[in-house]
Amino acid sequence: MTTEVLAALRPRPGGCYADGTVGGGGHAAALLRASAPTGRLFGCDRDGAAVQAARARLAEFAGRFEIRQDSFAGLDQWIEAGSCDGVILDLGLSSVQLDWPERGFSFQSDGPLDMRMDPAQELTAAALVNQTGAEELAKIFWEYGGEANARRIARAIARERETRPLERTRQLADLIERISPRGGRKSHPATKVFQALRIVVNDELGHLQRGLEAAVKILKPGGRLAAISFHGLEDRVVKKFGGRLSRDYEAHEPDVPELRRPRPAILRWVQRKAILPGAEELRENPRSRSAQCRVMEKL
Ligand SMILES: C[S@@+](CC[C@H](N)C(=O)[O-])C[C@H]1O[C@@H](n2cnc3c(N)ncnc32)[C@H](O)[C@@H]1O
């Protein structure tokens, strides 16, 4: 959604931008090009391979960017508070990660059951699947994947691992397909379980919450944050965050009006509704079909 990101962040010469999910460097290159000759960009990605790819892609902008391997949850640890005109968080996985069997994100091809965005991290999907109790696994599949057959799948996993640990993506995908056959569905029956495992292995929602807080800290007043999410759980975190900071009070949960503490609003929504990919983007990149971009401006 590069066109939408540029329209939201309005890059200009001399501006300073942060890309918390630099991936292959597509958005970063577009921001650097649109802010030439003096715009600067800070970028990070949890995945070291993505960082290397982005550095190579951005070579033509040498001297105007700095990229680190890190989570966007730590953006405020190395970028000065109030220094950025725009921040982009393009959540989820890149096509490179999805299409690389060894990373273990995809049920389409066989690979180790890994799913770590940062391969230096200890917890893998295999460890989660083989060492978590069936009740807890069912909860994960339901809460983070919305999987209706969560219990049956979790029990089948627990039975299977008594004789043979689950170590390969295909092994898990085949087991799920046996429990809940595809029927007339378009999507693979393992889609939701794989999503749930990935979210938990990488603590994606925890990083997102901290990343949004960090992004607001590094923005200047008038600076904008664009967050592109790919599933409802991410979008709910973004919406809730924007809703809370665009109100002129702090509230407890549950919100009791008498207990609200007044404070100035910290940001405003640039658009009430999420921006969706256009027809051309959908044609070129069918995976963008579930993308939703929300844009906020710091006050
Ligand atoms: C959809 S891709 C981004 C593609 C990028 N915008 C581009 O133009 O090439 C998402 C990227 O975000 C990274 N990522 C996901 N969560 C992250 C986090 N908490 N901190 C940093 N990077 C993260 C993934 O490793 C992946 O490379």
Rounded radius of gyration (Å): 20 Å
Lateral arrangement of strands in the main beta sheet:
3-2-1-4-5-9-8
User: Stretches where pLDDT falls below 50 for ≥5 residues?
Assistant: none
Strand content: 15-25%
Largest pleated sheet? 7 strands, mixed
Query: What is the chain-wise order of helices and strands?
Result: HEHEHEHEHHHHHHHEHEEEHE
- The count of helical stretches stands at 13
pLDDT averaged over residues: 96
Q: Approximately how much helix is present in the residues? A: 40-55%
What ligand molecules are bound, each kind once? S-adenosylmethionine
Q: In a nutshell, what does this entry contain?
A:
This protein has 299 residues and is of the alpha/beta class.
Label this structure with key terms:
299 residues, alpha/beta, seven-stranded mixed β-sheet, two-stranded antiparallel sheet, 42% helix, globular, binds S-adenosylmethionine
Question: How would you explain this protein's 3D organization?
Answer:
By secondary structure, this protein is an alpha/beta fold. Helices cover 42% and strands 16% of the residues. It contains 13 helices and nine strands. The chain has helices at residues 2-9, 26-34, 48-57, 75-78, 95-99, 125-131, 134-145, 150-163, 169-179, 191-201, 204-218, 232-245, 279-284, and strands spanning 16-19, 40-45, 65-69, 84-90, 219-229, 249-250, 261-262, 267-269, 292-298. A seven-stranded mixed sheet has the order 3-2-1-4-5-9-8, with helices on both faces. It has a two-stranded antiparallel ribbon with strand order 6-7. Strand 2, helix 3 (48-57) and strand 3 (65-69) form a beta-alpha-beta unit. Helix 7 (134-145) crosses helix 8, helix 7 packs across helix 10 and helix 11 runs parallel beside helix 12 (232-245). It starts with a helix and ends with a strand. The mean pLDDT is 96. It binds S-adenosylmethionine. Residues 20-21, 23-27, 44-47, 50, 71-73, 90, 92-94, 117, 207, 211 line the site of S-adenosylmethionine.
